[in-house]
Amino acid sequence: MENKQYKEISLFGLINISLIGTTSLNFKNIKKFILTNISKQLFSNIDIIYLYDLKDSETKAYYDSGMIVINLPLIKDDKDFIKTLLHELIHSQLDVIKNSNTIEMVIQEYLRKRGKVLNKLLTYNNSDPKFNSNYANLEYDQEFESYLKDKITYQIVYPVSHIYFPSPYAISSIDEYLCIGFEIYLLENKSWLEEFCPELYKLIENTIGGI
Ligand SMILES: [Zn+2]
Hints:
This protein is α/β, with parallel strands linked by helices. The chain is 51% helix and 12% strand. The protein is built from 10 helices and 5 strands. The protein is globular. The mean pLDDT is 91. Zinc ion binds next to helix 2 and helix 8.
């Protein structure tokens, strides 16, 4: 158990993780994992990573102009920390990733699947106009996301979507589809991605060496 209130962990001698608060996360292990498994290039847009208690926020983490903020109380364990950090690192590289010459194929794959899932959920939405106008939306829409998460509930969305999307949250926008895709590719189940998200898988394979 680590009890210090403030701690700095240096990564690659360049980026600091600043920890404010107490945590049982094992940063020795986390650092070892990052240095061995995550490309230094993925940190190229990051100046600082803050890890602290965001107080009453449901936000687990976010990336904003060179900074990643991770909400300490919402992190379950070392593995969850690494997953969360990687997710935000991918957000920081989205400009490069979306520049890929196969991005259009991924967008089509995403929209095709989004349409399929929303069609299957039609029985739950009672013809809500907000829901119906959202078929071709690529951008994150908070109202739509809480519709899926809280009104229809992920419990219902998951079984309907799990052969199309790596998680219900990946339905929420093309950015999340990409970020969660990279996360699955790098940390979890490459072959699942290859089978169920072939265009996304191809884009990741073609991009991963360059970021
Ligand atoms: Zn995200």
